[in-house]
Amino acid sequence: MYPTDLVMPMKAELTDKGFEDLATPAQVEDALKQSGTTLLVINSVCGCAAGAARPGVVYSLTGDKKPDHLTTVFAGYDKEAVETARQHLAPFPPSSPCVALFKDGELVHMLERHHIEGNPAGAIAANLQAAYDEYC
């Protein structure tokens, strides 16, 4: 488990932009059952989360279409919530950071860590905006 002082500023990069912080399994279950579209970010302390995932996700929300609900859990901190979230990401293996888009509770788009690592934030945003155009 990462120390709170380390994690909170990284959580704030998303929660300050309107993302709901899901800290318990029950919160994850409730969030992913919502009707409409739900973006789930499994946040992380790694460099690709800081350099590409978080900035790319935030930038993706500047377009005309965007998800109805914005949610996040933090790997290495919200352990049980992350485990619950990952149950909804099958068949994809555990990956952090990662970004998933759900529509009416069904997983419709997934960005795994290997899609994020080595890519600029703009590429992450463009990928997500294309998914929003299709599903939102």
TrEMBL record:
One Pfam family in the UniProt entry: Disulph_isomer
InterPro entries reported for this sequence: BrxB/BrxA
Gene3D superfamilies with a match to the protein in the record: Glutaredoxin (3.40.30.10)
PANTHER family: BACILLIREDOXIN BRXA (PTHR40052:SF2), UPF0403 PROTEIN YQIW-RELATED (PTHR40052)
Family membership: Belongs to the bacilliredoxin family.
Protein name: BrxA/BrxB family bacilliredoxin
Organism of this sequence: Chryseobacterium formosense
Organism lineage: Bacteria, Pseudomonadati, Bacteroidota, Flavobacteriia, Flavobacteriales
